[in-house]
Amino acid sequence: MKNIITNLNKTFDHRIRLGIMSILLVNDWVDFKTLKQTLEVTDGNLASHLKAVEAKAYIEVRKQFVGRKPNTSYRVTALGRQSFNDHLNALEQLLNMRS
Question: Are strands 30-31 and 69-76 parallel, antiparallel or unpaired?
Answer without folding.
Answer: antiparallel
